[in-house]
Write a structure and sequence with these properties.
By secondary structure, the protein is of the alpha/beta class. Helix content is 46%, strand content 22%. The protein has 2 domains: 4-240, Alpha-Beta Complex (Spore Coat Polysaccharide Biosynthesis Protein SpsA, Chain A), CATH 3.90.550; 250-301, no CATH class. Strands 1, 2, 3, 4, 5, 6, 7, 8, 9 and 10 form a 10-stranded mixed β-sheet that branches. α1 links the parallel β1 and β2 (33-39). α1 (14-25) crosses α11. Residues 244-248 have low confidence and may be disordered.
């Protein structure tokens, strides 16, 4: 297998990022590089986590302001390998994903990318098994975002469109590739996990996206309706997960615990600084005799 890069796009998802990074390290063969693209995160804990990465074969780049398509294009341009897997921080790759995706595109010149079946976890858990990765599946929203892309094919059509509304960029890229004669392949195995929050559902698309791909939507209307109905039925019947699932997602729980500990440590450090400042203050030194008398009287009286 040729060397590949894994690029993880993260925006204020520090609680999930380490899980995504760990899943990239677990790939066999290992990726040549892991690229974390901080998509203009404003959350202090996420920014702190990203700034603190000093791991082997891992590099961080940061966008000054959030822009989903620009973050993915940055991943394409920062990558030196022929293929790059671009995923979100809410996704986790199973250990065989890169090998399976690479096998799907390796001997197929028309294949511009490959993804896989995925399972959801978080608020509810289900499995999503699309029949293929063609235009109907793209428009129905039954494909995971994580995809191993051929960089040359994606760059040849201009990469992700930065003029579309956020959330349309990956689906639009897949459809433009299809119109250019390329295909997205699908590994028929559950090799991707995606965390879904409360109220998550198949995303709709903007009016601009709809107008651009109206021909495909009309041509595949029946297939799209059937696939969306199946997905909605799967989500409605999904097994609900507890709000704090003990043992269901250990990496997520560990990240949450680390965040909580970091918050407590910060508060403790702040309290120590305040106490030191108070101890050094003039008013604290002047009132020391009065506080000593008060403490002695209180001790002598004892509890009432």
């Amino acid at each position: 297998m040729k060397p590949v890069t894994v690029a993880i796009v993260c925006r204020d998802e520090g609680a999930l990022l380490e899980d995504a990074v760990d899943s990239a390290y677990a790939q066999r063969p290992a990726p040549a590089e892991i690229l974390v693209v901080d998509d203009g995160s404003l959350d202090p804990r996420t920014r702190e986590l990203v700034a603190g990465y000093r791991w082997p074969r891992l590099r961080v780049v940061r966008l000054p302001r959030p822009h989903a398509a620009a973050a993915r294009n940055r991943a394409l341009h920062e990558t030196a390998t022929e293929s790059v897997c671009i995923m979100s921080a809410a996704e986790r790759l199973q250990p065989g994903f890169l090998a399976a995706a690479h096998a799907e595109i390796e001997d197929r010149p028309a294949a511009a990318g490959a993804t896989a079946w995925f399972r959801t976890n978080g608020t509810f858990e289900t499995e999503v098994r699309a029949p293929d990765a063609g235009p109907a599946a793209v428009l129905a929203g039954v494909l995971a975002e994580a995809t191993l892309w051929r960089r040359a094919a994606v760059l040849a059509i201009g990469g992700f469109d930065e003029g579309l509304e956020e959330g349309d960029e990956t689906a639009d890229l897949r459809l433009r590739l299809a119109k250019a004669g390329h295909e997205t392949r699908l590994a028929r195995d559950l090799l991707i996990a995606r965390r879904l929050g409360a109220g998550s559902a198949p995303a709709g698309h903007s009016a601009a996206f709809g107008a651009r791909h109206a021909d495909l939507s009309a041509f595949h209307a029946a297939e799209i309706a059937g696939l969306r109905a199946e997905l909605l039925a799967a989500l409605w019947s999904a097994r609900p997960a507890p709000a704090l699932p003990p043992g269901t997602d250990p990496a997520f729980e560990l990240a949450e615990a680390r965040r909580h500990i970091a918050g407590l440590e910060h508060a403790l450090s702040h309290a120590h600084r305040r106490l030191a400042d108070l101890g050094a203050s003039w008013s604290w030194r002047v009132t020391a005799p009065l506080r000593a008398v008060h403490a002695r009287l209180t001790r002598d009286r004892g509890p009432r």
